[in-house]
Design a protein that fits this description.
Layout lengths: L16 H18 L2 E2 L5 E3 H7 L5 H6 L2 E3 L5 E4 L4 H10 L9 E10 L11 E10 L4 H17 L6 E6 L3 H15 L8 H9 L10 H7 L11 H16 L5 E2 L11 E8 L8 E7 L3 H4 L7 E7 H11 L11 E5 L2 H16 L4 E3 L6 H11 L3 E5 L1 H5 L2 E6 L4 E6 L3 H11 L1
Parallel strand pairs: 1-5, 7-8, 12-13, 12-14
Antiparallel strand pairs: 2-4, 3-4, 5-6, 6-11, 7-9, 9-10, 10-11, 14-15, 15-16
Helix pairs in contact: 1-5, 2-4, 5-9
The structure holds adenosine monophosphate (AMP).
């Protein structure tokens, strides 16, 4: 137990964490360019927020939440997603009273009690955005374009963008009736979940993964068949914008978000390379959600991208990551007086903005050189008793294999210049 982490979690250790930092860097840069501001939200929230905000009939709320009573006997849930907390924060902080739309992004861990497998974990990480206060289909196109831009900056290829419109509550009332008529004669052959969904939320039958339910639902009426003129125009406008941006997509009528406050655009991005868990991101419009959470009627749209699956796809596709960085300089120290001098030098180097390291295990000079090589240090400074007495240091360029003696008091400036130049 003490040396085993809980199932479905992972450690992101040095050597891997640089990849995560790289993704974060690219995403933050993207958010700056698209003019999204960061919001940092709690890791846990009141359980009711997700029951209301994600929906009682969803798998997340029915089966997957980490819910517990805290010591004050309040029901708390580790966040399974970021939209409901962002909506709560928008309302609680009265962001609706400022200029609209409010464009936010977040990064961080999410928690779902899922069956762990490749690409599916219990603690996983998402990058997400939410736009509150604009119904314009150009916003739908912007968030989709932003997600696709992120993938392409990482070098991902061959992704498939699936697009659909689930209309407004009016369209869905029509669809609901049509679906019930369509599925009623087939109910006996369908899975228990779908038989439950038939009454509560027949739309969700369309995204059932069970083979026989999928077979039955081929030919079922779809959201697109039931769009009212306004919703059809909105959907067409989103597609026109995507065409202007030269973003290819497939219309996928099975892509549904079954809850009443999910409206209009729904989208998902698939990667072929990572097996069954192929969705590397998804999102959609939720013009009814903010009102359902107790706020003023406010349109909203957002997406969430799964980092573990993005990394998996990047590795499968052989995408490039920035090379690992070692220290700029390693101080190899021989003898006690040199160690005192090394402490002083290290501080000067670091204050000058260089990444500097030294030996702490009393290694021989030879072993220190080897260690510096393992650390991937660019330069090694050799500081021995003899050098100390002559007020010089030996500077070795590890890549070039050359070394030279330089006056100790010129070391910091000299190294800064070399590191800047290379
Ligand atoms: P969702 O919030 O369910 O729309 O998920 C958005 C994205 O998060 C998905 O496209 C996945 O990339 C990722 N994701 C969702 N659930 C998991 C999970 N259990 N493990 C890893 N990634 C996940």
């Amino acid at each position: 137990m003490l040396t085993t982490r809980p199932r479905g979690t992972s450690d992101i250790i040095p050597g891997q964490v640089e990849k995560w930092q790289y993704l974060e860097h690219v995403f933050r840069r993207l958010c700056r360019e698209y003019d999204y501001a960061e919001i940092r939200l709690p890791i846990f929230e009141h359980t009711e927020l997700f029951q209301r905000g994600v929906g009682e009939t969803t798998d997340i709320v029915e089966k997957e939440m980490y819910t517990f009573l805290d010591r004050g006997k309040r029901s708390i849930t580790l966040r399974p997603e970021g939209t409901a907390p962002a909506v709560r924060a928008y309302l609680e902080n009265r962001l609706y009273a400022g200029p609209q739309p409010v464009k936010l992004y977040y990064t961080g861990p999410m928690f779902r009690y899922d069956r762990p497998q490749a690409g599916r974990y219990r603690q996983f990480h998402q990058f997400g955005v939410e736009v509150f206060g604009a119904h314009d289909p150009a916003v739908d196109a912007e968030v989709i374009a932003m997600a696709m831009d992120f993938y392409s900056r990482l070098g991902l290829q061959g992704l498939e963008l699936h697009l659909n419109s689930v209309g407004c509550p009016g369209c869905r009332a029509v669809l609901r009736k049509k679906l019930q008529e369509f599925f009623r004669p087939h109910l006996d052959g369908m899975c228990a979940d779908c038989r439950g969904r038939f009454e509560r939320n027949p739309l969700r039958i369309l995204d059932c993964k069970v083979e026989r339910c999928r077979e039955v639902s081929t030919g079922a009426p779809t959201t697109v068949d039931c769009l009212c003129p306004d919703c059809a125009a909105h959907f067409q406008a989103v597609q026109d914008y995507l065409a202007v941006l030269a973003i290819p997509y497939v219309v996928d009528p099975r892509l549904v978000r079954g809850l009443d406050y999910y409206t209009h655009t729904a989208f998902e991005i698939m990667a072929a390379d990572i097996g069954a868990q192929s969705s590397i991101g998804g999102g959609g419009r939720y013009d009814g959600l903010i009102e359902a959470c107790g706020g003023p009627p406010t349109p909203g749209i957002g997406y969430a991208l799964g980092l573990e699956r993005i990394l998996l796809t990047m590795e499968r596709q052989g995408c490039a990551f920035p090379p690992p960085e070692g220290p700029d300089v390693f101080l190899a120290v021989a003898g006690e007086p040199a160690s005192l001098e090394a402490v002083r030098l290290l501080q000067q180097l670091r204050r000058a903005g260089l990444a500097a390291a030294r030996d702490y295990l009393g290694r021989s000079l030879k072993a220190q050189m080897k260690y510096a090589g393992k650390l991937n240090a660019r330069y090694v400074v050799i500081l021995g008793g003899d050098e100390l007495a002559r007020r010089v240091v030996t500077l070795k360029d590890m890549a070039a294999g050359t070394q030279e003696e330089i006056p100790a008091d010129r070391l910091v400036d000299g190294l800064c210049r070399r590191c800047r130049e290379s």
